[in-house]
Design goal:
CATH topology of the largest domain: Isopropylmalate Dehydrogenase
Distance between the termini: 11 Å
Shape: globular
Radius of gyration: 21 Å
Strand content: 15-25%
CATH class of the largest domain: Alpha Beta
Oligomer: single chain
Structural class: alpha/beta
Bound molecules: 3-isopropylmalic acid, magnesium ion
Order of helices and strands: EHEHHEHHEHEEEHEHEHEHEEHHH
CATH architecture of the largest domain: 3-Layer(aba) Sandwich
Number of domains: 2
Strand order of the largest sheet: 2-1-3-12-11-4-5-10-8-9
Length: about 375
């Protein structure tokens, strides 16, 4: 029997982008979980797989086309879908790309930009069961529960990039050398829409607090950011708001993470701080993310393609599976299904099962499992929670 169908529609189109490295392995598990969700809730997820990243560069090159990390057909499919589920891109194979040559990461940046996904959500929670897997002391991370809201299509990553060779005086001792420029720029509206989202999210959380992170003691972008934050904050008197400099924030995240609820920041700072914050949950392998904005939303783990362990069946699929939960919550409004996946992950961790990245020295060998077994354990817990 199926449960009451809480979703508003019965078929959803999901554009699936496994990408590179461990991508295909962890995606396979996420899709198996999704299939069980479909059965349990009477919803059909029409999944269509497409290329992105290094896989797309190789395929377009092999087909005699201009190599690209985001082929036109992938973008077209993404736009026509209800959600995009992405794994990870990149790897050493493409690291040697020369200036002007296609790079896997361009695919990710381009799809975010093309879909207008200006907002990236990275929830970070200290899993009690993983308290000893983190490099940080259990008493420091205990109870940490924060939402990082990262601006995603502006700033340094999308400003003009330029590298010049043989610039007089740019080398050592006055010789000619290379000179490179990356421009950080923001318009007020780009700041306002993410800041407003952060305040909305904070006003619905148990701890109604926004920490805005910037470098206002140095950067013009940050001074403008701060001005916008203060203006928007005035509309949310129920939400406590404070500013924090990014260098201090990097320290506070590992010194006293319990002080944060919603953390909002620009693109580059958010990129760096979210990797750092992932250690609060025990491993970067636990962190899911949602990218929202104007077009089809995109869901992906916060971690990379881990080329060093690709193809071995040992990668942690949990961040990918938790990304499915975020997709169900934000794109399909299937909150009960999302909660049920998250509870299933909790139950699996509580049962002691671990992939290598979240195992501890004390983890018994028979509790250390591979990608497939971890996926299956989540499915079993999901079914058991019916
Ligand atoms: C991330 C990644 C990407 C980013 C890279 C691969 C371009 O690090 O999603 O955090 O910086 O946004
Ligand atoms: Mg990153």
């Amino acid at each position: 029997m199926t449960e009451t169908n809480e979703a508003t529609r019965t078929t959803y189109r999901v554009c699936v982008l496994p990408g590179d490295g461990i991508g295909p392995e962890i995606m396979a598990e996420a899709l198996r979980v999704l299939e069980h969700v479909g059965e349990a809730y009477g919803v059909r997820f029409a999944c269509e797989e497409h290329l992105i990243g290094g896989a797309a560069i190789d395929a377009t090159r092999a087909a005699g086309r201009t190599p690209t990390a985001l082929p036109e057909e992938t973008l077209t499919a993404a736009k026509a879908s209800d959600a995009v589920l992405l794994a990870a891109v990149g790897g050493p194979k493409w690291d040697g790309a020369k200036l002007g040559e296609a790079r896997p990461e361009q695919g990710l940046l381009a799809i975010r930009k093309s879909l207008g996904l200006y907002l990236n959500l990275r929830p970070v929670r200290a899993y009690a069961a993983l308290a000893n897997a983190s490099t940080l002391k259990p008493e420091v991370i205990s109870g940490a529960d924060l939402l990082i809201v990262r601006e995603l299509t502006g700033g340094l990553y999308f400003g003009a990039h330029e590298t010049q060779a043989d610039v007089p005086g740019a080398g050592a001792n006055g010789a000619a050398g290379m000179h490179a420029t990356d421009v950080m720029e923001y318009s007020e509206y780009e700041v306002e829409r993410v800041v407003r989202w952060a305040f909305e999210a904070a006003s619905r959380r148990a701890v109604r607090k926004v920490t805005s992170v910037d470098k206002a003691n140095v950067l013009s972008c940050s001074r403008m950011w701060r001005e916008v934050v203060h203006r928007v904050a005035a509309e949310y008197p129920q939400v406590e708001c404070s500013d924090m400099l990014v260098d201090n924030c990097a320290m506070q995240l590992v010194a006293n993470p319990g002080q944060f609820s919603v953390l909002v920041t620009e693109n580059t700072f958010g990129d760096i701080l979210s990797d750092e914050a992932s250690m609060l949950s025990g491993s970067l392998g636990m962190l899911a993310s949602a990218s929202l904005g104007d077009g089809t939303a995109l869901y992906e783990p916060s971690h990379g393609s881990a080329p060093d362990i690709a193809g071995q069946g040992v990668a942690n699929p949990l961040a990918q599976i938790l990304s499915v939960a975020m997709m169900l919550r934000y794109s399909m409004h299937m909150d009960a299904a999302a909660d049920r996946i998250e509870r299933a992950v909790d139950a699996v961790l509580a049962s002691g099962l671990r992939t290598r990245d979240i195992a501890e020295p004390a983890t018994p060998a028979d509790k250390i499992v591979g990608t497939r077994a971890m996926g299956q354990a989540v499915i079993d817990a999901f079914e058991a929670a019916e």
